[in-house]
């Protein structure tokens, strides 16, 4: 092989080695500029990430996601009714601030979360502020989900006026924070909790002498 060609190749190899060496030095220099994370610092970071939070002064502006992460994340889950109400905040529905403040006082993020909210009720007035009752009744006039064993059908949004029916709220049938796979079944199940013989008409189960 011609010496001139060999010399050219050697020159290229030396140049490449020089470039790689310079890059290595640069990388090491940059790495040296980074703050060293000692094991003590790392352990403190881990502890901060898992540190328990105890509430002493709950208010409607408190970040509910700190503890109730599943419920808050349901606002983005299209299977949950909450996802269709993105304009609402937690406090818009859970408005019993006095009771909630009392229940949250001294609670910790490490505490076991309730599987169902039993200590506060969502007022139907919140729902009816946007959903017109008469329009709902019209839309469900032909729904047959609430049909008893005698074939009597009741409109779920136009129930007969009784004292018991007046106590029914929207959330008795409509679930907000979990996937509601069988709305018809859920509503009918709520009816039969009182109409236990699956008969809607009064005085047909228990005859009076």
Automatic annotation (TrEMBL):
Domain Tetrahaem cytochrome intervals? 85-196
- Give the top-rank taxon of the lineage listed in the UniProt record for this protein: Bacteria
- Give GO MF terms, alphabetically: metal ion binding
Entry-linked PROSITE patterns: PROKAR_LIPOPROTEIN
Protein location:
Cell envelope
Alphabetized, the UniProt keywords read: Electron transport, Heme, Iron, Membrane, Metal-binding, Transmembrane, Transmembrane helix, Transport
Which chain regions cross the lipid bilayer? Answer: 12-31
Its predominant location is other
Please provide, in alphabetical order, the Gene Ontology terms of the cellular component aspect for this entry. Answer: cell envelope
In terms of Pfam families, this protein maps to: Cytochrom_c3_2
Protein name (Swiss-Prot/TrEMBL): Tetrahaem cytochrome domain-containing protein
Q: Which organism is it from?
A: Slackia isoflavoniconvertens
Specify the taxonomic lineage.
Answer: Bacteria, Bacillati, Actinomycetota, Coriobacteriia, Eggerthellales
